[in-house]
Specification:
Two copies of one chain form a homodimer. Chain A is α/β, with parallel strands linked by helices. Chain A folds into two domains: 10-122, Tetrapyrrole methylase, N-terminal domain (Cobalt-precorrin-4 Transmethylase, domain 1, 3-Layer(aba) Sandwich); 128-239, Methyltransferase, Cobalt-precorrin-4 Transmethylase, Domain 2 (2-Layer Sandwich). The first copy, chain A, contains eight helices and ten strands. Chain A has a five-stranded parallel beta sheet, with helices on both faces. In chain A, strands 6-7-10-8-9 form a five-stranded mixed beta sheet, with helices on both faces. The longest helix of chain A has 16 residues, at 155-170. The radius of gyration of chain A is 20 Å and the shape is elongated.
Chain lengths: 241, 241
Protein backbone atom coordinates (compact mmCIF):
# COMPACT_ATOMS: atom_id res chain seq x y z
CA UNK A 1 0.00 0.00 0.00
CA UNK A 2 1.44 3.36 -0.92
CA UNK A 3 1.31 6.15 1.63
CA UNK A 4 -0.69 9.23 0.69
CA UNK A 5 1.25 12.26 -0.53
CA UNK A 6 2.29 14.51 2.32
CA UNK A 7 0.57 17.88 2.29
CA UNK A 8 3.08 19.92 4.28
CA UNK A 9 5.35 22.08 2.13
CA UNK A 10 8.98 23.17 2.36
CA UNK A 11 9.46 26.95 2.38
CA UNK A 12 12.91 28.37 1.57
CA UNK A 13 13.26 31.32 3.94
CA UNK A 14 15.82 34.07 3.32
CA UNK A 15 17.24 36.30 6.02
CA UNK A 16 19.02 39.64 6.03
CA UNK A 17 22.52 40.28 4.82
CA UNK A 18 24.54 43.28 5.93
CA UNK A 19 23.31 45.52 8.74
CA UNK A 20 20.15 46.85 7.11
CA UNK A 21 16.78 46.39 8.82
CA UNK A 22 14.34 43.69 7.69
CA UNK A 23 12.09 46.05 5.75
CA UNK A 24 15.03 46.78 3.45
CA UNK A 25 15.07 43.31 1.96
CA UNK A 26 12.35 41.08 3.40
CA UNK A 27 8.90 41.18 1.70
CA UNK A 28 5.87 41.34 4.05
CA UNK A 29 4.64 37.96 2.81
CA UNK A 30 7.73 36.25 4.24
CA UNK A 31 6.79 37.56 7.68
CA UNK A 32 3.29 36.08 7.33
CA UNK A 33 4.76 32.71 6.37
CA UNK A 34 7.36 32.69 9.14
CA UNK A 35 4.67 33.37 11.73
CA UNK A 36 2.53 30.57 10.33
CA UNK A 37 5.25 27.92 10.66
CA UNK A 38 6.24 25.97 13.73
CA UNK A 39 8.97 23.75 12.21
CA UNK A 40 12.28 25.08 10.92
CA UNK A 41 15.49 23.52 9.68
CA UNK A 42 18.33 25.82 10.75
CA UNK A 43 22.10 25.94 10.75
CA UNK A 44 22.53 26.70 14.43
CA UNK A 45 19.72 26.74 16.93
CA UNK A 46 20.85 29.64 19.14
CA UNK A 47 21.42 32.03 16.26
CA UNK A 48 18.26 30.79 14.53
CA UNK A 49 16.08 32.24 17.30
CA UNK A 50 17.74 35.61 16.71
CA UNK A 51 17.40 35.34 12.95
CA UNK A 52 13.71 34.43 13.21
CA UNK A 53 13.09 37.51 15.37
CA UNK A 54 15.02 39.66 12.90
CA UNK A 55 12.89 38.56 9.97
CA UNK A 56 9.66 39.18 11.82
CA UNK A 57 8.70 36.07 13.82
CA UNK A 58 6.82 37.53 16.76
CA UNK A 59 5.26 34.48 18.42
CA UNK A 60 6.47 32.32 21.27
CA UNK A 61 9.28 29.86 20.64
CA UNK A 62 7.62 27.35 23.00
CA UNK A 63 5.70 25.78 20.16
CA UNK A 64 8.50 25.96 17.64
CA UNK A 65 10.64 22.95 16.73
CA UNK A 66 14.10 23.63 15.32
CA UNK A 67 16.06 20.93 13.47
CA UNK A 68 19.78 21.47 13.11
CA UNK A 69 21.44 21.10 9.71
CA UNK A 70 25.22 21.01 9.68
CA UNK A 71 28.11 19.01 8.28
CA UNK A 72 27.27 16.17 10.68
CA UNK A 73 23.65 15.83 9.52
CA UNK A 74 23.05 12.46 7.89
CA UNK A 75 20.47 11.80 5.17
CA UNK A 76 18.38 9.85 7.69
CA UNK A 77 18.34 12.86 10.05
CA UNK A 78 17.02 15.09 7.28
CA UNK A 79 14.43 12.48 6.32
CA UNK A 80 13.27 12.61 9.92
CA UNK A 81 13.13 16.43 9.88
CA UNK A 82 10.77 16.26 6.91
CA UNK A 83 8.48 13.75 8.62
CA UNK A 84 6.34 16.56 10.05
CA UNK A 85 5.08 17.32 6.53
CA UNK A 86 3.25 13.97 6.65
CA UNK A 87 1.05 15.43 9.40
CA UNK A 88 0.34 18.42 7.20
CA UNK A 89 2.89 20.71 8.85
CA UNK A 90 4.76 23.13 6.61
CA UNK A 91 8.46 23.41 7.39
CA UNK A 92 10.91 26.25 6.73
CA UNK A 93 14.51 25.97 5.64
CA UNK A 94 16.06 29.08 7.17
CA UNK A 95 19.22 30.75 5.94
CA UNK A 96 21.47 32.54 8.43
CA UNK A 97 22.33 35.16 5.79
CA UNK A 98 20.75 35.61 2.39
CA UNK A 99 19.07 32.85 0.42
CA UNK A 100 19.04 29.19 1.45
CA UNK A 101 20.93 26.97 -1.03
CA UNK A 102 22.75 29.82 -2.80
CA UNK A 103 26.32 29.77 -1.52
CA UNK A 104 24.53 28.38 1.52
CA UNK A 105 23.67 24.92 2.87
CA UNK A 106 20.35 23.21 2.28
CA UNK A 107 20.44 21.78 -1.25
CA UNK A 108 20.26 18.25 0.10
CA UNK A 109 17.12 19.10 2.10
CA UNK A 110 15.49 20.42 -1.06
CA UNK A 111 16.57 17.40 -3.07
CA UNK A 112 15.12 15.05 -0.48
CA UNK A 113 11.89 17.06 -0.41
CA UNK A 114 11.54 16.67 -4.19
CA UNK A 115 12.13 12.93 -3.92
CA UNK A 116 9.27 12.75 -1.41
CA UNK A 117 6.96 14.92 -3.55
CA UNK A 118 6.99 17.64 -0.92
CA UNK A 119 6.20 20.96 -2.58
CA UNK A 120 9.16 23.38 -2.45
CA UNK A 121 8.31 27.08 -2.25
CA UNK A 122 11.13 29.63 -2.62
CA UNK A 123 10.52 33.01 -0.96
CA UNK A 124 12.10 36.23 -2.19
CA UNK A 125 15.02 37.74 -0.33
CA UNK A 126 18.48 39.26 -0.55
CA UNK A 127 21.62 37.66 -1.94
CA UNK A 128 24.99 39.36 -2.08
CA UNK A 129 25.88 37.17 -5.07
CA UNK A 130 22.81 38.25 -7.03
CA UNK A 131 23.20 41.92 -6.03
CA UNK A 132 26.83 41.77 -7.14
CA UNK A 133 25.90 40.36 -10.54
CA UNK A 134 23.18 42.89 -11.34
CA UNK A 135 25.22 45.85 -10.15
CA UNK A 136 28.41 44.81 -11.94
CA UNK A 137 27.34 46.18 -15.32
CA UNK A 138 28.55 42.88 -16.77
CA UNK A 139 26.74 40.23 -18.76
CA UNK A 140 23.62 39.15 -16.87
CA UNK A 141 22.45 36.87 -19.69
CA UNK A 142 25.36 34.51 -19.14
CA UNK A 143 27.29 34.12 -15.90
CA UNK A 144 28.90 31.49 -13.70
CA UNK A 145 29.23 31.43 -9.93
CA UNK A 146 32.25 29.44 -8.77
CA UNK A 147 31.95 29.78 -4.99
CA UNK A 148 35.35 29.89 -3.31
CA UNK A 149 38.51 29.85 -5.39
CA UNK A 150 41.23 27.30 -4.54
CA UNK A 151 43.21 28.48 -1.50
CA UNK A 152 46.69 27.53 -2.69
CA UNK A 153 49.02 28.77 -5.39
CA UNK A 154 49.34 28.05 -8.22
CA UNK A 155 45.83 26.45 -8.28
CA UNK A 156 44.23 29.80 -7.41
CA UNK A 157 46.08 31.69 -10.17
CA UNK A 158 45.35 28.91 -12.64
CA UNK A 159 41.66 29.02 -11.83
CA UNK A 160 41.57 32.81 -12.28
CA UNK A 161 43.37 32.57 -15.63
CA UNK A 162 41.03 29.81 -16.84
CA UNK A 163 37.98 31.85 -15.72
CA UNK A 164 39.33 34.85 -17.59
CA UNK A 165 39.95 32.83 -20.73
CA UNK A 166 36.51 31.20 -20.59
CA UNK A 167 34.93 34.62 -20.00
CA UNK A 168 36.61 36.06 -23.08
CA UNK A 169 35.55 33.11 -25.20
CA UNK A 170 31.90 32.87 -24.09
CA UNK A 171 31.28 36.44 -22.86
CA UNK A 172 30.38 34.84 -19.53
CA UNK A 173 30.58 36.88 -16.31
CA UNK A 174 32.68 35.02 -13.71
CA UNK A 175 31.61 35.36 -10.09
CA UNK A 176 33.49 34.17 -7.01
CA UNK A 177 34.02 34.76 -3.32
CA UNK A 178 36.92 34.43 -0.90
CA UNK A 179 37.30 33.95 2.83
CA UNK A 180 36.91 37.60 3.99
CA UNK A 181 40.35 37.79 5.62
CA UNK A 182 41.94 36.91 2.27
CA UNK A 183 39.94 39.46 0.20
CA UNK A 184 42.73 42.03 -0.12
CA UNK A 185 45.12 39.32 -1.20
CA UNK A 186 42.70 38.08 -3.86
CA UNK A 187 42.11 41.63 -5.08
CA UNK A 188 45.85 42.14 -5.48
CA UNK A 189 46.24 38.83 -7.29
CA UNK A 190 43.40 39.66 -9.70
CA UNK A 191 44.78 43.11 -10.43
CA UNK A 192 48.26 41.78 -11.01
CA UNK A 193 47.54 38.69 -13.15
CA UNK A 194 44.45 39.61 -15.21
CA UNK A 195 44.65 41.36 -18.57
CA UNK A 196 44.51 45.19 -18.51
CA UNK A 197 41.24 45.22 -20.49
CA UNK A 198 39.46 42.70 -18.23
CA UNK A 199 36.68 44.22 -16.14
CA UNK A 200 36.61 43.59 -12.39
CA UNK A 201 33.74 44.48 -10.12
CA UNK A 202 33.83 44.50 -6.34
CA UNK A 203 30.64 44.28 -4.26
CA UNK A 204 31.57 44.71 -0.62
CA UNK A 205 29.30 44.84 2.45
CA UNK A 206 26.18 44.55 0.31
CA UNK A 207 23.07 45.84 2.14
CA UNK A 208 25.14 47.57 4.81
CA UNK A 209 25.49 51.32 5.48
CA UNK A 210 28.94 51.18 3.97
CA UNK A 211 28.02 49.11 0.91
CA UNK A 212 30.74 49.61 -1.68
CA UNK A 213 30.21 48.56 -5.29
CA UNK A 214 32.67 49.56 -8.00
CA UNK A 215 33.60 48.29 -11.45
CA UNK A 216 36.70 49.20 -13.41
CA UNK A 217 39.02 47.63 -15.93
CA UNK A 218 42.14 46.05 -14.48
CA UNK A 219 44.23 48.87 -15.93
CA UNK A 220 42.03 51.42 -14.14
CA UNK A 221 42.21 49.47 -10.87
CA UNK A 222 46.01 49.51 -11.19
CA UNK A 223 45.92 53.32 -11.23
CA UNK A 224 43.36 53.59 -8.37
CA UNK A 225 43.72 53.24 -4.64
CA UNK A 226 42.93 49.65 -3.71
CA UNK A 227 39.71 49.36 -1.67
CA UNK A 228 40.11 47.88 1.81
CA UNK A 229 38.17 44.61 1.71
CA UNK A 230 39.76 43.02 4.77
CA UNK A 231 37.26 40.89 6.68
CA UNK A 232 34.37 42.46 4.74
CA UNK A 233 32.07 40.07 2.84
CA UNK A 234 32.86 40.69 -0.82
CA UNK A 235 31.74 39.28 -4.15
CA UNK A 236 34.10 39.52 -7.13
CA UNK A 237 32.82 39.61 -10.73
CA UNK A 238 35.08 39.46 -13.76
CA UNK A 239 34.42 39.87 -17.47
CA UNK A 240 37.13 39.53 -20.08
CA UNK A 241 36.93 40.66 -23.67
CA UNK B 1 39.07 71.63 -14.84
CA UNK B 2 37.45 68.40 -13.72
CA UNK B 3 33.73 68.39 -13.03
CA UNK B 4 32.67 67.55 -9.47
CA UNK B 5 31.46 64.01 -8.80
CA UNK B 6 27.74 63.68 -9.36
CA UNK B 7 25.75 62.98 -6.23
CA UNK B 8 22.67 61.35 -7.73
CA UNK B 9 22.65 57.55 -7.51
CA UNK B 10 21.41 54.76 -9.76
CA UNK B 11 18.91 52.42 -8.06
CA UNK B 12 18.24 49.01 -9.61
CA UNK B 13 14.51 48.49 -9.10
CA UNK B 14 12.95 45.04 -9.33
CA UNK B 15 9.32 44.39 -10.16
CA UNK B 16 6.99 41.46 -9.68
CA UNK B 17 7.11 38.21 -11.56
CA UNK B 18 4.12 35.89 -11.83
CA UNK B 19 0.68 37.02 -10.71
CA UNK B 20 1.39 37.44 -7.01
CA UNK B 21 0.76 40.79 -5.29
CA UNK B 22 3.61 43.18 -4.52
CA UNK B 23 3.81 42.31 -0.82
CA UNK B 24 4.77 38.77 -1.85
CA UNK B 25 8.13 39.78 -3.25
CA UNK B 26 8.77 43.53 -2.91
CA UNK B 27 10.33 44.77 0.36
CA UNK B 28 8.79 47.90 1.92
CA UNK B 29 12.04 49.83 1.45
CA UNK B 30 11.72 49.56 -2.33
CA UNK B 31 8.36 51.34 -2.14
CA UNK B 32 9.96 54.18 -0.16
CA UNK B 33 12.69 54.53 -2.77
CA UNK B 34 10.33 54.38 -5.74
CA UNK B 35 8.21 57.16 -4.23
CA UNK B 36 11.29 59.28 -3.64
CA UNK B 37 12.47 59.13 -7.27
CA UNK B 38 11.28 61.23 -10.19
CA UNK B 39 13.56 59.84 -12.92
CA UNK B 40 13.34 56.30 -14.26
CA UNK B 41 14.95 54.38 -17.08
CA UNK B 42 12.34 51.92 -18.38
CA UNK B 43 11.87 49.43 -21.17
CA UNK B 44 8.55 50.75 -22.39
CA UNK B 45 6.92 53.91 -21.11
CA UNK B 46 3.26 52.82 -21.21
CA UNK B 47 3.85 49.60 -19.29
CA UNK B 48 6.29 51.35 -16.95
CA UNK B 49 3.49 53.48 -15.49
CA UNK B 50 1.61 50.28 -14.70
CA UNK B 51 4.67 48.59 -13.25
CA UNK B 52 5.44 51.60 -11.05
CA UNK B 53 1.90 51.52 -9.66
CA UNK B 54 2.17 47.77 -9.08
CA UNK B 55 5.34 48.13 -7.03
CA UNK B 56 3.88 50.89 -4.89
CA UNK B 57 4.46 54.27 -6.57
CA UNK B 58 1.49 56.31 -5.39
CA UNK B 59 2.36 59.85 -6.46
CA UNK B 60 1.46 61.78 -9.57
CA UNK B 61 3.22 60.96 -12.81
CA UNK B 62 3.22 64.67 -13.76
CA UNK B 63 6.58 65.20 -12.15
CA UNK B 64 8.08 61.91 -13.29
CA UNK B 65 10.47 61.67 -16.22
CA UNK B 66 10.75 58.32 -17.98
CA UNK B 67 13.67 57.49 -20.28
CA UNK B 68 13.20 54.61 -22.68
CA UNK B 69 15.82 51.91 -22.94
CA UNK B 70 15.53 49.49 -25.84
CA UNK B 71 17.56 47.95 -28.62
CA UNK B 72 17.66 51.34 -30.38
CA UNK B 73 19.15 53.21 -27.40
CA UNK B 74 22.62 54.52 -28.22
CA UNK B 75 25.38 55.04 -25.64
CA UNK B 76 24.94 58.82 -26.04
CA UNK B 77 21.22 58.49 -25.19
CA UNK B 78 22.01 56.65 -22.00
CA UNK B 79 24.71 59.18 -21.12
CA UNK B 80 22.01 61.82 -21.45
CA UNK B 81 19.58 59.83 -19.24
CA UNK B 82 22.21 59.80 -16.49
CA UNK B 83 22.77 63.58 -16.73
CA UNK B 84 20.10 64.21 -14.09
CA UNK B 85 22.43 62.70 -11.47
CA UNK B 86 24.67 65.74 -11.94
CA UNK B 87 21.89 67.85 -10.47
CA UNK B 88 21.71 65.51 -7.51
CA UNK B 89 18.71 63.53 -8.78
CA UNK B 90 18.66 59.82 -8.08
CA UNK B 91 17.50 57.71 -11.00
CA UNK B 92 15.91 54.26 -11.09
CA UNK B 93 16.54 51.49 -13.59
CA UNK B 94 13.21 49.67 -13.60
CA UNK B 95 12.73 46.06 -14.65
CA UNK B 96 9.44 45.00 -16.26
CA UNK B 97 9.69 41.60 -14.55
CA UNK B 98 12.15 40.52 -11.90
CA UNK B 99 15.59 42.01 -11.43
CA UNK B 100 17.16 44.56 -13.78
CA UNK B 101 20.24 43.18 -15.53
CA UNK B 102 19.59 39.52 -14.73
CA UNK B 103 18.26 37.94 -17.92
CA UNK B 104 17.03 41.50 -18.40
CA UNK B 105 18.33 44.65 -20.10
CA UNK B 106 20.22 47.38 -18.31
CA UNK B 107 23.82 46.18 -17.92
CA UNK B 108 25.10 48.93 -20.18
CA UNK B 109 23.36 51.58 -18.05
CA UNK B 110 25.09 50.20 -14.97
CA UNK B 111 28.43 50.02 -16.73
CA UNK B 112 28.13 53.63 -17.82
CA UNK B 113 27.13 54.66 -14.30
CA UNK B 114 30.28 53.03 -12.91
CA UNK B 115 32.42 54.82 -15.50
CA UNK B 116 30.94 58.13 -14.32
CA UNK B 117 31.40 57.27 -10.62
CA UNK B 118 27.66 57.23 -10.08
CA UNK B 119 26.86 55.05 -7.09
CA UNK B 120 24.89 51.91 -8.06
CA UNK B 121 22.45 50.58 -5.47
CA UNK B 122 20.80 47.19 -6.08
CA UNK B 123 17.43 46.67 -4.38
CA UNK B 124 16.13 43.25 -3.38
CA UNK B 125 13.45 41.57 -5.44
CA UNK B 126 12.28 38.41 -7.14
CA UNK B 127 14.00 36.50 -9.91
CA UNK B 128 12.66 33.34 -11.50
CA UNK B 129 16.25 32.31 -12.29
CA UNK B 130 17.37 32.63 -8.68
CA UNK B 131 14.22 30.94 -7.33
CA UNK B 132 14.77 28.09 -9.78
CA UNK B 133 18.35 27.60 -8.63
CA UNK B 134 17.63 27.55 -4.90
CA UNK B 135 14.61 25.30 -5.26
CA UNK B 136 16.29 22.83 -7.61
CA UNK B 137 18.09 20.94 -4.84
CA UNK B 138 21.18 21.13 -7.05
CA UNK B 139 24.59 22.63 -6.40
CA UNK B 140 24.17 26.26 -5.30
CA UNK B 141 27.90 26.68 -4.66
CA UNK B 142 28.68 26.38 -8.35
CA UNK B 143 26.26 27.13 -11.18
CA UNK B 144 26.13 28.71 -14.62
CA UNK B 145 23.27 30.59 -16.24
CA UNK B 146 23.34 30.34 -20.03
CA UNK B 147 20.30 32.42 -20.95
CA UNK B 148 18.58 31.10 -24.08
CA UNK B 149 19.87 27.95 -25.75
CA UNK B 150 20.56 28.03 -29.51
CA UNK B 151 17.28 27.79 -31.46
CA UNK B 152 18.42 25.40 -34.18
CA UNK B 153 19.43 21.77 -34.32
CA UNK B 154 22.02 20.41 -33.95
CA UNK B 155 23.45 23.49 -32.15
CA UNK B 156 20.81 23.19 -29.41
CA UNK B 157 21.50 19.48 -28.80
CA UNK B 158 25.25 20.10 -28.89
CA UNK B 159 24.95 22.87 -26.32
CA UNK B 160 22.87 20.64 -24.02
CA UNK B 161 25.38 17.80 -24.32
CA UNK B 162 28.31 20.12 -23.62
CA UNK B 163 26.47 21.59 -20.59
CA UNK B 164 25.82 18.07 -19.31
CA UNK B 165 29.44 17.06 -19.77
CA UNK B 166 30.75 20.22 -18.10
CA UNK B 167 28.26 19.73 -15.24
CA UNK B 168 29.48 16.18 -14.62
CA UNK B 169 33.11 17.29 -14.67
CA UNK B 170 32.81 20.36 -12.43
CA UNK B 171 29.64 19.53 -10.46
CA UNK B 172 28.24 22.79 -11.85
CA UNK B 173 24.46 23.30 -12.04
CA UNK B 174 23.47 24.38 -15.56
CA UNK B 175 20.60 26.86 -15.85
CA UNK B 176 18.83 27.97 -19.01
CA UNK B 177 15.60 29.33 -20.40
CA UNK B 178 13.68 28.96 -23.65
CA UNK B 179 11.10 31.00 -25.54
CA UNK B 180 7.92 29.94 -23.65
CA UNK B 181 6.19 28.51 -26.75
CA UNK B 182 9.13 26.13 -27.24
CA UNK B 183 9.28 24.92 -23.60
CA UNK B 184 7.59 21.56 -24.20
CA UNK B 185 9.90 20.89 -27.11
CA UNK B 186 12.98 21.68 -24.98
CA UNK B 187 11.67 19.48 -22.18
CA UNK B 188 11.26 16.58 -24.61
CA UNK B 189 14.71 17.13 -26.05
CA UNK B 190 16.30 17.18 -22.59
CA UNK B 191 14.50 14.04 -21.50
CA UNK B 192 15.44 12.20 -24.65
CA UNK B 193 19.11 13.17 -25.02
CA UNK B 194 20.41 13.52 -21.46
CA UNK B 195 21.82 10.63 -19.45
CA UNK B 196 19.33 8.69 -17.27
CA UNK B 197 21.16 9.71 -14.07
CA UNK B 198 21.25 13.43 -14.91
CA UNK B 199 18.98 15.53 -12.71
CA UNK B 200 16.54 17.96 -14.33
CA UNK B 201 14.56 20.56 -12.47
CA UNK B 202 11.65 22.56 -13.88
CA UNK B 203 10.57 25.85 -12.31
CA UNK B 204 7.43 27.01 -14.08
CA UNK B 205 5.25 30.08 -13.39
CA UNK B 206 7.39 31.07 -10.41
CA UNK B 207 5.51 33.38 -7.99
CA UNK B 208 2.15 32.58 -9.57
CA UNK B 209 -0.80 30.71 -8.04
CA UNK B 210 0.06 27.73 -10.19
CA UNK B 211 3.82 27.77 -9.53
CA UNK B 212 5.18 24.35 -10.40
CA UNK B 213 8.65 23.27 -9.28
CA UNK B 214 9.80 19.68 -9.64
CA UNK B 215 13.13 17.89 -9.81
CA UNK B 216 13.70 14.33 -10.96
CA UNK B 217 16.37 12.31 -12.69
CA UNK B 218 15.96 11.95 -16.44
CA UNK B 219 15.03 8.29 -15.97
CA UNK B 220 12.26 9.31 -13.54
CA UNK B 221 11.02 12.03 -15.91
CA UNK B 222 10.83 9.40 -18.65
CA UNK B 223 8.42 7.39 -16.49
CA UNK B 224 6.36 10.44 -15.43
CA UNK B 225 3.70 12.45 -17.22
CA UNK B 226 5.39 15.39 -18.92
CA UNK B 227 4.36 18.72 -17.34
CA UNK B 228 2.63 21.14 -19.70
CA UNK B 229 5.02 24.09 -19.97
CA UNK B 230 3.57 25.60 -23.15
CA UNK B 231 3.73 29.40 -23.10
CA UNK B 232 4.51 29.36 -19.36
CA UNK B 233 7.73 31.08 -18.23
CA UNK B 234 10.02 28.23 -17.19
CA UNK B 235 13.59 27.90 -15.92
CA UNK B 236 15.43 24.63 -16.51
CA UNK B 237 18.24 23.44 -14.22
CA UNK B 238 20.41 20.42 -14.95
CA UNK B 239 23.02 18.61 -12.89
CA UNK B 240 24.94 15.62 -14.21
CA UNK B 241 26.98 13.22 -12.15
Amino acid sequence: MSTPNPCGRLYLIPSMIGNCPANYCIPPYNIQIVNRLSHFIVEETSSAYRTLRHIGFNGSFDNVTLYQLNEHSRPEDITEYLECTKDGHDIGLLSEAGLPCLADPGAYVVRLAHSKDIQVIPLTGPSSIVSAIISSGMNGQCFAFHGYLPIKSPQKENKIKSCEKYSAEFHQTQVFIEAPYRNNQLFNTLVSICLPTTLLSIACNVNSDDEYIAMKSISEWRKSNAPDLHKKPTVFCLLAN
